[in-house]
Amino acid sequence: MRIAPLRSLAERYAAPVPRYTSYPTAPHFHDGIGPREAAAWMSELPKGSNLSLYVHIPFCRALCWYCGCTTTVANSPQPVAAYLQTLETEMTHAAALVPADHRVSHLHWGGGSPNTLVAADIVALADRTRELFNVDDAAEFAVEIDPRFMDRDRVAAFRQAGVNRVSIGVQDFDPKVQAAINRHQSYELTARVVAMLCEVGIPSLNIDLVYGLPGQTQASVARTLDQVLKLDPDRVAVFGYAHLPERIRHQRLIDTSALAGPGDRLGQANRISRKLLAHGYVRVGLDHFAKPSDPLAAGPLGRNFQGYTTDTADALIGFGASAISRLPQGFTQNAPRVPDYTSRIASRRLATARGFAFSSEDRIRGYVIERLMCDLTFSETDLRARFGAAEAQSLIDDAQLLIESDQDGLIEPTPDGFRVSEGGRPFVRSICACFDSYLGQSAARHAAGV
Ligand SMILES: C[S@@+](CC[C@H](N)C(=O)[O-])C[C@H]1O[C@@H](n2cnc3c(N)ncnc32)[C@H](O)[C@@H]1O
Ligand code: SF4
Question: Which domains does the chain possess?
């Protein structure tokens, strides 16, 4: 089938769809799941479970106007110190619930900006985590940082803490774009931070970029990418700007008239990806790129709340305000605002405010959506082998309907199901949405599909 022109496809598929970092997606979590379920689900984890731990640090030194993350500006050390104490109470309680012989293979600190913590706190939090949990010596330990507020002491502290992957926020190097998003960050400053991280031997660096920001053009994102390539990152994440001013107040400071339409957004994304591929990076899932030697390129690939991952742990346990856990029985999420999180930990020692218990249909739909987001394929054989022929049948019927109704060449039938075509790749979230039986059942707003 011939693919329709990408620009008109972009307009047709611009309707809002989730990013599918989970299924069901977070807007469907409800308050029928609380600390009691979270405690029961953690204590029911099988002996010897392999765990992944996520710690959310909801603080930044300054607010970027485009930011969609759960964070606040911390102007003094006091709220951060108080938060770290609460975090320790939560982690201590959870450590007593999980099986004693668990092992932790992945640690991830996200935010916000974990480098808001001072060096001594970085080391203390990592040490306490190792006292409470059985963290493998070879565990992957990733941290997200805002390079504008990084110094030698913090770099040394992250290394001492055992961090072996650092994700650096760049977004865009064009001063005009930076002014429009309230994030001033020169190439030179970023290069100095990269050099410091390399000097102490952090083995893996990721850089985050965003397209679709105010004032960006295909030419300007290409210039930013030229500078990023000089920094030689192992991975590059390329996110489409999610503009949700109804929900995120500070995004109202963004000049909407300077935002690109769906066709131009797609043009910017394509320009970045063509350049990265030409420089030898391989595409990973929808929006990540990695050097061929990087474990993310080798797979197997999974998807979680931080995006694409090589993490195959049995459960993900999230700590801190807004953090989400994925347990075999379902998802749990902590209260998003720090005061609410703090008072819940003080009274109940867990801060679960909502969650979702999986049905057997949720599991199979979640699996199909994760495989589409990661491998861009739908395999009938794999589905039958994992879930049984009877359970798999309704999804196989859905896939058949999709193949028959695809007028745009977004998917290609295979002897065993279908794969997303090269032209359909930018629209994979819209393809996933066809398997989402909850879509449209909540008042949640999602960002544009392209
Ligand atoms: C939690 S932030 C952590 C990075 C660090 N705080 C920084 O900004 O340098 C992770 C990434 O999310 C992305 N991001 C934040 N808000 C976004 C939005 N509204 N749309 C798309 N991506 C966004 C940015 O690329 C950012 O680097
Ligand atoms: S993008 Fe990063 S530094 Fe900027 S406000 Fe969001 S979390 Fe903080």
Answer: 6-10+26-316 (3.20.20.70), 360-450 (1.10.10.920)
